[in-house]
UniProtKB/TrEMBL annotation:
<dbReference type="InterPro" id="IPR001932">
    <property type="entry name" value="PPM-type_phosphatase-like_dom"/>
</dbReference>
<dbReference type="Pfam" id="PF00481">
    <property type="entry name" value="PP2C"/>
</dbReference>
<feature type="signal peptide">
    <location>
        <begin position="1"/>
        <end position="17"/>
    </location>
</feature>
<feature type="region of interest" description="Disordered">
    <location>
        <begin position="328"/>
        <end position="355"/>
    </location>
</feature>
<feature type="compositionally biased region" description="Polar residues">
    <location>
        <begin position="100"/>
        <end position="121"/>
    </location>
</feature>
<feature type="domain" description="PPM-type phosphatase">
    <location>
        <begin position="19"/>
        <end position="317"/>
    </location>
</feature>
<dbReference type="GO" id="GO:0004722">
    <property type="term" value="F:protein serine/threonine phosphatase activity"/>
</dbReference>
<protein>
    <recommendedName>
        <fullName>PPM-type phosphatase domain-containing protein</fullName>
    </recommendedName>
</protein>
<dbReference type="InterPro" id="IPR036457">
    <property type="entry name" value="PPM-type-like_dom_sf"/>
</dbReference>
<dbReference type="InterPro" id="IPR015655">
    <property type="entry name" value="PP2C"/>
</dbReference>
<keyword id="KW-0732">Signal</keyword>
<feature type="region of interest" description="Disordered">
    <location>
        <begin position="97"/>
        <end position="123"/>
    </location>
</feature>
Amino acid sequence: MGSWVGFLAGCAPMVSSSVACMFTQQGRKGTNQDAMIVWEAGGIVCEHPVDFGSNKDTVFCGVFDGHGPFGHLAAKRVRDSLPSKLCSQWKAAMERGKESNNTNINGSVGSMNSDETSSLNPWMKNGKNMRTWKILRRLTWDVFCQIIQGEELVFANVGDSRAVLGTRDDDDTLMAVQLTVDLKPNLPKESERIKQFKGRVFALQDEPDVPRVWLPHDDSPGLAMARAFGDFCLKEYGVIAVPEISYHRVTKRDEFIVMATDGVWDVLSNQDVVDIVSLAPTRTTAARSVVDIAVRAWRVKYPTSKIDDCAVVCLYLHNSSLVSEVKTKKDASQELPSTKDATAMPGTVSEDKCP
């Protein structure tokens, strides 16, 4: 699986809306294989608008991190088809009959995967949420996606992209809370499954901190994640495309969510990213700020390595909580230069075009 962004090498588009902004930048490894999308139900003008069961308070977000020589082509197809496919299945499920929706969500954060379908937590006991989970479970992708419906957030990820929440603690300090798990091959559950199907997991000597998945009798392909869309040569050896489903109920303390590919998380901590977003002068520049500082971090931490592609989506949970109102001081050394190849376009929330 790969990803695609709609710009020429060297360009870096930045788009924003009233609820989100996103930015991607090509690294030094060739074609940019990171992409992202934000769809506001009923709020975007495009050829095929998203309509999740006529729920106008729904937002769909996704970041796509590709790999391999044709990764950008595969990611373009997934990015362009996934929202409409999810929407059509959503509508079909709604038409098959609505279940009772009287149960409140008591939990704050939780997750379910393919081995836990029988463990119905409070979120799953809600009939509408059960339908949402069933729809997501039928889809497979090597990306991270999120659906927001009112105060309910549903995440689905395959691979190592990540979602982090910026929220306030009891002392009103902005803190980072990781909402998803990086599905790396060295996770005990992932490693056990891969080895059960005769796949191998080990790291190379020159990168001991990067576990990879290998064929039983051949030192290839060396996939650095335990779940992926595509990579068919490893599907018989434990690499699956079943998304990890997580959820979160938004509270008044929650301010924003940052979704990013591993090019960001490899060099910045969760708290680093949350602080950067909170220090951005406007919502339209928050994602750009994260990417710019991540690129700088790559040059400092890994001066001999090629900078990875970076893609970031910042989603704001409360329209009244402006980033510029956060009472923190921005260090002068973190001032970001303006560039001619990045222009905010208010009201536009699709990275390239709608499916």
